[in-house]
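Exercise: predict the structure of this protein bound to heme-A.
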Amino acid sequence: MRKEARKSTVPLVVLLLSCAAMLSGCTNLPATTLFTYGDHATRILDLLMPVFWMAVGVFVVVQGALVYTVIRFRSKQANAPVPAQIHGNTNIEIMWTIAPAIILLVIAVMTFRTQAANSYQPPEAMKIRAIGHQWWFEFQYDDGTIVTANDLYIPVGQSVQIQLEAADVMHNFWIPKLAGKTYMIPGKTNYLAFKATEAGIFRGFCAEFCGESHGNMHFRVIALDAADFAKWKTNFATTPAAANGTAQVLGLTGDAARGAAIFADAKKQCSSCHIISGTVAKGKIGPNLTYFGNRRTIAAGMLPYSTDNMAKWLQDPTSIKPGNLMGRVIKKGTLKDQEIADLVAYLDGMKFAVNMPAEK
Amino acid sequence: MSATSHAHHDEAGQAPLVGSLGVDSRKLGLWAFIGSETLFFTALITTHLIFYARTKAELTASGMLAHLDPKHFLGINLTSVLAAILLASSLTMVLALAASKAKEWQKFRFWLLATIILGSSFVLGQAYEFSHLYAEGLKLAPQFVYEGETVKSLFGVTFFTMTGFHGLHVTLGVIWLIAVYFKVRKFPASPENPMDVELVGLYWHFVDLVWVGIFTLIYLI
Amino acid sequence: MAEHATHDQHAEAHEAHGTRFYWMVGAILAIITTIEVAIFLVKDTIGHELFLAILFILSIAKGAGVVMFFMHLRGDARIFQLVFIVPLTFAVTMCLGFLTIFSNYGGIAG
Amino acid sequence: MAIAEHKLTSVSPATASSGSFPWRTWLATVDHKKIGIIYIVSAFVFFMLGGIEAMLMRVQLGAPNNTFLSADVYNQLFTMHATTMIFLMVMPMNVGIGNYVVPLMIGARDMAFPRLNAMSIWLFLGGGLLLYMSFLTGGAPNGGWFAYAPLTQVQYSPTSGMDYWILGLGLTGIASIAGALNFIVTVLNMRAPGMSINRMPLFVWMNLVVSFIIIFAFPTFTVGSIELLFDRQFGGAFFNPAQGGDAMLWQHLFWFFGHPEVYILILPVMGMISEILPVFSRKPIFGYSFVAFSGVGIGFLGFIVWAHHMFGVGMGPMANAFFAAASMVIAIPTGVKIFNWIATMWAGDVRLTTAMLYAIGFISMFIIGGISGITLASPPIDLQQTDSYYVVAHLHYVLFGGSILGLFAGAYYWFPKMTGRMLNERIGKIQFWIMLISFNVTFFPMHIVGTEGMPRRIYTYEAGMGWDLWNFIETVGTFFLAFSILIFIYNVLSSLRNGEVASNDPWDAATLEWTMPSPPPSYNFLHIPIVNSRRPLWDAKYPHAAGDDHHGASSAPSQVRYEYTDEETAGAKDIHMPSLTFSPMILSGGLTIAALGFVYINKDILGLPTRVAALGFILIGIVMVAIAIRGWIVDSRKDSPYLGQHH
Ligand code: HEA
Ligand code: HEA
Ligand code: CUA
Ligand SMILES: [Cu+2]
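Solution:
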């Protein structure tokens, strides 16, 4: 009897864990796939749910049969007689070959329907080009006339078609709440179409291992109402105004105009890697920093956006994000604190108002 | 490789050559190995075909195919001769086997030597072909030069890798043939001889078979 | 699977091929090769599809000849046929599968 | 190992020696049982290494924003963890147990090619050592166990790590192919009289199937890694899109191998389960031919599902649908196995020994892993789950919950046969429950964090994602898991010294290996048994119960013996076994040294001297190989009834 009680710890543990799983499934966590705000992800969830319950059914039946058999037929005495020597039964075999086949057929048919819906590329979809870099995302609108990085702005209620490419190694583009993953592959172009159904800020990740800082390659999707999105686009398309203003950082006062000069200074090399439209900065190695003041994060999700964090980044990019390319040139001490303060003032000052939705 | 203990190890201590399946163990092992090698060479050939199709499509699209088909490198004359040599060596090989089974050692030595010579000529021919192609601009590099024009293509890489590994197999086959030649000479009375010959023969025919595939898929199409 | 098939049967199958037979097979294979090269030289006049079709048939015949008669797979123990044909099927599956996948470069995950 | 050795030498005249550890009889051995033990022990050592790597990873992931490991070290660790567990632990452990048990089960004196067998073990060790050398020489491989291009190209992975990976796995690959050929010939051609194909134990069946999978799956991997080596060292560009190569080609070549590989890891274990369940249910396996042929079916299907690892790469919905359907079909033969196992226990006399507990645990956990596999096989669902911890959960449920638990079942089952001592059952049961529970604590939450968006292969994560608690629990679980393995080690060491002495047939089993002394003498069977049913030993013990055994049995009883007179035993000296030889080891050593040369053949580390040294290594290696082949030929002549001296 005591041994039987022990035997039942397995299902108990599994049961407890699955209860816990359900509970946590009921919380809307930042990156969960179970609360969706995009048609692509919703269709997947609608497929997952019935498949999940079928799986639970199969699990309960088979696991139950296993545990029941073990408990029921456990040897009760040391010298039990040899049980009947049964070698098989063809009818039963056929039955339990067919039963799973039927379940699988149902799963397969549902799968194909979802596949068809999710791979459809609506011709009217807004086209956005997304390029994966080690370890950040570049986003281009309107054939490259608008270029930004790490914050993907999309309109709500309109299909967008992301054209996925990679500049170096493979990356994997994933916005759990909006759409399933699609790889970004050098030498190959992939397409992913989806539609956000609610305004909000959503988490995005690079999901394919892409080298040292793969774990630090995130992005944000900012889904704006159609009007707000149109406004964002118009604003972004206008060249940033001449730098002015100041910022308090590292206990110093940074001056934006001075920062702009530093940024443009060929010796400091910022301009050889970054683009800021309307300036001499035309480098294509790093993210486009136009309207950097609007960013939600710094360095592809490494740090939340703030002037302090920006200063931290400029002080020593490598310590923030191991292996990143900028750190090979900008090392600890390359920039003096005053220069950093000026640069922060410049970059932070470059912004316009956006009607930001909530994090979802 | 040698099977020394058999299931039917009878009391007289005389190891029979056949086991529970009624076949020779080494021969079974070799056939299975040949099965494995089939997939090895198919993977190499498939790689080549994928990139060749791409190069061809790109050259056609840019209108360069007419005078820049990578195929122009591969002289059909030399390769036909090589194919014929390898085929002939297969014939001499099987004749050597027949002779060894009939215990006609004189004949056997003649045909085996012929096989060795033909096989070596194939290797030499291939070495000549490689150096010739190299001089013409086809290198183990992702581009090749044809009459002064550089083409970005993996043709050289896939071609040399594939045929190189085939050539390596032929070389190993020649070494094995030579080893069998001397073994039979040293132990003419051994009843294992026909099987030794049969094994190296199987391997040799397989290498020929691979060339049948390469010749058609790479040189002709 | 042929259990305990006697060795002598296979041995007989081998002996059945005299040297003349091998010469004949060799000659046929040589002729096939000649035809292959010949149609290669005239391939522009016969059209690409026909050229490919003939070439495939000829080289399959050639390969089959080598395997069946030189390697004696025909008439040899079933197990040898099995361990050669099964991987050959996998190999063909792989080759055709890869070529199909690579010819149609979808670009859509689904 | 001391006791085991003592036992072996005491019964085997060929290895009789006294005093210190008989190095020679082990290093130059061609005995399948000794080779099996070397495999098992070295695979276990690699298990510890892979486990320690996992524990380091888990410590790093135990808390958000942790800085215990750097990103670079973490990446090396998970690459080496998976490479170790798959290629240096589960595969060789399967081969080791198979090596020991298969010849005994089919009534053979040894493997078909004993010297080739010895070569396999040393080559496997050479490959493993080469892989681990990379830690000392500037960085272990860091591209993940499937080494996706172009990250593994030299410009993105400039250390020599990936070269070590290619060549190390190349060596173990040759060892695996040679081993598989050996198994194929042994199983097909070395069976005792009457041991027909449809009477073979299912463990033997699964080893046969797996050997075929190995020889058909490994070549594509070999080609892929040769091409990768050409890319990295000899100016190729197969997988480098920047120069016209194709990153997808690597994935196809790898997974054409990689998927069959996972069945290479599980099928032998399923074979063990199919041996253990009937013995401890005191019944024959239910539906023998269904269980056997479902294994064959899984083997075949395994070759047409490879691209289910690539649903996200944009092959298009048609291709994905095909691979999805094919993957789902595999659930059918697998289900057949599961149901037949349950039916085997049904109405049986189920004795819950440690081995049996592990076998039941295997079924139980594998069901979970298999079902999560089915959700992954649906492309839309996979697009959310791929590259997330959900996959990590799936793969550990099938690999740990499957392979490892099954291997423990096999270990408890065959340990008495291999060493002559019983493992302690009480400790074993405690170990089982700790392991089963901590396994679930470690890996079940991974399903959840995966669903909650945690990507795999990230060295750290930010707080507030809802992942912290689960990751902490997983890390705690890992320590209990390690503890359970320490218990096992204790059990093995103490049982070797003073465990209960094992009789020939401690489990009341049914197959031929239990007719022999524990451990068996070097020549295995004094008289080769004559087999007349699927359960020769059982039928000899229970003639009345064997009556209804008309499946695959002929009317005559099997002739198995396990008691011999001294006189008969003395006759054993006439049994000729192949002699000790160092040639296989020298050959493997030569190949390993040459492989080391290839790692550096085109490296600019110290300029010319490196290349010269590398070339030197290659030449030394080739010379060693040549010497070894000569020695090999000479040695094999000694054993030839026609060419050798008379004994
Ligand atoms: C032992 C190893 C093993 C085994 C046996 C399996 C078995 C299966 N695996 Fe798994 N798999 C791995 C090891 C294994 N896998 C590994 C290591 C990876 C990750 C590689 C990496 O990326 O690092 C992986 C990844 C992986 C993926 C890719 C995920 C991704 O990266 O996106 C997929 C997708 O289809 C998949 C599917 C399956 C399926 C369908 C099975 C089936 O064979 C399972 C069949 C079994 C059952 C279904 C349970 C028993 C059946 C019944 C009780 C009958 C009734 C059932 C039903 C009706 C459903 N596996
Ligand atoms: C058979 C295969 C196998 C096995 C057994 C394991 C076992 C374990 N794995 Fe494994 N794992 C893989 C195969 C396996 N894994 C694969 C294929 C991957 C994918 C890799 C990739 O993405 O490329 C992976 C990835 C993987 C990850 C994900 C990494 C990532 O994506 O970032 C994690 C994380 O927790 C993990 C953890 C563990 C743990 C905790 C164990 C534990 O079960 C280990 C338990 C064992 C021990 C703890 C050993 C005992 C040690 C001691 C007792 C130490 C004491 C001794 C001395 C000091 C002498 N594994
Ligand atoms: Cu980019 Cu991971
Ligand atoms: Cu798979």
